[in-house]
Amino acid sequence: MGSVWATMAKIAGDAYPEDIRKAAFDLGKKLVLSCENKAACKDAGKKAESFKERMRGLMLWRKQEWPYEYQYWKKHRGLD
Hints:
By secondary structure, this protein is mainly alpha-helical. 69% of the residues lie in helices and 0% in strands.
């Protein structure tokens, strides 16, 4: 990765070398295909569930200070 940054540091304006332009274009195609196919990385579900549980705990802990957010989570996220 270091060589990529060294190369990028030498680029001025829009004068990107063809190999960098191709790599960026290929990455863009991969991103679009992943979005169209609703692809996710292997551990995305675990991370999302972990984050949701963390936020659930925060909503319960801060319900007095965050009444709007607490009510939103009760209505839309199934908070008990």
